Amino acid sequence: MSDIGTRTAAADEIRAVIEDWAGAMREKDARRVLAHGTQDCLVYSLAPPLKETAAGAEGLEQWFSTWKGPLGYQLQELEISAGGDVAFATALTHLSGEKLDGEKAALWFRQTLGLRRTENGWKIAHQHESVPFYMDGSFKAAIDLDPKSEVDWQAPSRPPMAGVIAYLNVQDANATAEFYGRAFGAREVDRRYAEDGKRLIHCHLTINGGALMLNDPFPEFGYPWKPQEGVVLHLVVDDADFWWKRAVAAGAEVTMPLAVAFWGDYYGQLRDPFGVLWAIVAPVKKD
Length: 287
Prior knowledge:
Number of strands: 14
Number of helices: 5
Radius of gyration: 26 Å
Structural class: alpha+beta
Oligomer: single chain
Helix content: 10-25%
């Protein structure tokens, strides 16, 4: 058989292995999935840690148990290159399904498989999954992309945002954003969820004409929650009494009563339920 024929035959064998492996993923058959891998298969998955070895079925079965019914697991644009006893394959993979809590998930990600020829046939020795992230400073995963996504590189970029923008790491970004709507009249510009569908990786609010950003802690990525210290968010407004009463009615705690300060402004401080200090400031109205 010619070298080209040998590579073609190997590619056909590998394709069959990958298709059965993907079928086992859809059927949530952990042992069959792992049977297609080497014992020391190195896995760079979407979930932490940074790397792991697929040593047993227990962890995979535990993940499968969080899904209701079969999984959607489809590979698109599968390309295989084989030479000798090693090969690699690339594909765009679509994962979809319904979690036990009713959350529905669907995302595309990039996948690369490294394979070795063994005495038992081709086995997956390396698995690498990834999604791109947006380069706008939010570091949010671009899980809203699909193979048909198109970017207009000639489109004008968004205008820069004025001033210094506070970006808060809070314990419950969803609840914080809702509270800021009630207390400070916040308007939501954008809200992006992490892969768990619960935590916010990015939330953009507008308050009093300025931007405020929020996100939940992600300790698994080295970004744990820490109490806010030494920072006060100032709201300079025309009607301090209105802003003050609305925030207090929503549940903000008074830490410095609203009064005329020694420097001449009408000033007071509040602490919101998430530990963030706010100042309401207005010029003193002259009779």
